[in-house]
Amino acid sequence: METINHPLTNVQLELLKSFSHDHPENKLNDLKVLLADFFSDMAITEANKVWERDNWDENKVRELLETKLISQ
Question: Among the four 28, 38, 62, 70, which has the fewest Cβ within 10 Å?
Answer without folding.
Answer: 70
